[in-house]
C-alpha cells in the first residue's frame, strides 16, 4: 500500500523493494521512484514456476531512508497441473444422483498448487463439450452429481485446477443411473365381488402388503407375476395394499383394500362349515389379480 502524502515527511519520496529466494542470504534491491506506484514486477525467464521469495518494502525521501515493512513470502506465477487425477470411480446413488471419487494426481508440486477439481458429466448420446461441470474446492476427492436422468448411461471425467488453469483430464468412467421410482398404483374392486381384486400398476413388479386390521405388524410378499394367492384365517378382517418397487426405490401404494371376515361357508379349503370352533388351520384363499399397464 502506498504511503499518504501527509506521512511522507518531505520531497523526493519513493520506495525500496528488497527480495531474495526463500532460504538464501543476500537481498536484491530496486528503487521505485514514484510515491503513487503500488507494484513492482521482477522478470526473470529462468525463474521456476511457483518459486517462493521473501519480500520487504522500505521508504526514502530527500532526508534519507525510513524503515522496512515486515518480511512476507510471495510466489512466482504457477503453472496449471500437468497430470490427471487417478483411480476415478463412479457409482449410482439413485435415479438422479451419482457419486464420483478420485485420487490426487502424482505431480511435482513445485510447479503449482491444486486448488480443487473439476468433474465433467455427460450422457452417452451427448457431446463431451456440453458436459455438466461441477467444481470442488481444496482437498475434496469426491462429490455428488445430481439432476440426472433415470436409467441412463453417463460418462464422467475429472481434472485438477489452480489459478493458472485446468490440467489434463482423467480417463472417462461409465455409470448407469438407477431406474426411476415407479408410478403410483390404482386399485379397484372388481364389480363389487369379494375376489379377485383387480389392480392397475406400472412395471416393475409389486409388493403385496397385508395385515390384520387389529394389528400394526405387516407381512410382505414380493412377486414378479401378475397375481398372488394369499391363504388367510377367515375369521379376521384384513387390509391389503400393493405397491411397485425397483432399484430406484418403492413407488406409491395403492388404495387400501379392506377384506371383511369371511364365514366358513364361503371359505375355500376351510373344512366343514359346521365346525364348532374356528382355528388358524381354517384358511380362506384370497386371489389378488394384478393387471400390468406399460409406463408412458
Automatic annotation (TrEMBL):
CDD domains per record: FN3 (cd00063)
One CC-aspect GO term: plasma membrane
Keyword Lipoprotein: yes
Keywords, ordered alphabetically: Cell adhesion, Cell membrane, Disulfide bond, Glycoprotein, Lipoprotein, Membrane, Repeat, Signal
Any one GO BP annotation for this protein: brain development
Keyword set includes Signal: yes
Record's subcellular location: Cell membrane
Record organism: Platysteira castanea
Domain Fibronectin type-III: 1-79, 84-180
Protein name: CNTN4 protein
Classification via SUPFAM superfamilies: Fibronectin type III
Gene Ontology MF terms in the entry: cell-cell adhesion mediator activity
Amino acid at each position: 500500500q502506498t504511503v499518504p502524502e501527509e506521512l511522507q515527511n518531505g520531497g523526493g519520496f519513493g520506495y525500496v523493494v528488497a527480495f531474495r529466494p526463500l532460504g538464501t542470504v543476500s537481498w536484491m534491491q530496486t528503487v521505485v521512484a514514484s510515491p503513487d506506484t503500488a507494484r513492482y514486477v521482477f522478470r526473470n525467464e529462468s525463474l521456476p514456476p511457483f518459486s517462493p521469495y521473501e519480500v520487504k518494502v522500505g521508504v526514502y525521501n530527500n532526508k534519507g531512508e525510513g524503515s522496512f515493512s515486515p518480511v512476507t513470502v510471495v510466489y512466482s506465477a504457477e503453472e496449471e497441473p500437468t497430470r490427471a487425477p487417478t483411480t476415478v470411480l463412479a457409482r449410482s446413488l439413485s435415479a438422479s444422483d451419482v457419486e464420483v471419487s478420485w485420487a490426487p494426481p502424482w505431480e511435482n508440486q513445485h510447479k503449482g498448487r491444486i486448488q480443487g477439481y473439476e468433474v465433467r458429466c455427460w450422457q452417452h448420446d451427448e457431446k463431451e463439450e456440453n458436459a455438466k461441470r461441477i467444481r470442488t474446492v481444496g482437498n475434496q476427492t469426491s462429490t455428488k452429481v445430481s439432476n440426472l436422468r433415470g436409467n441412463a448411461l453417463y460418462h464422467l471425467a475429472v481434472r485438477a485446477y489452480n489459478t493458472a488453469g485446468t490440467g489434463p483430464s482423467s480417463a472417462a468412467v461409465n455409470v448407469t443411473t438407477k431406474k426411476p421410482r415407479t408410478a403410483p398404483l390404482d386399485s379397484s374392486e372388481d364389480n363389487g365381488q369379494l375376489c379377485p381384486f383387480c389392480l392397475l400398476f406400472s412395471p416393475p413388479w409389486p409388493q403385496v402388503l397385508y395385515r390384520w386390521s387389529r394389528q400394526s405388524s405387516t407381512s410382505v410378499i414380493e412377486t414378479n407375476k401378475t397375481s398372488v394367492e394369499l391363504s388367510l384365517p377367515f375369521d379376521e378382517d384384513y387390509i391389503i395394499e400393493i405397491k411397485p418397487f425397483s432399484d430406484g426405490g418403492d413407488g406409491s401404494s395403492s388404495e387400501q383394500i379392506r377384506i371383511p371376515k369371511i364365514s366358513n361357508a364361503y371359505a375355500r379349503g376351510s373344512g366343514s362349515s359346521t365346525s364348532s370352533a374356528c382355528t388358524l388351520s381354517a384358511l380362506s384363499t384370497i386371489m389378488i389379480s394384478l393387471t400390468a399397464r406399460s409406463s408412458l
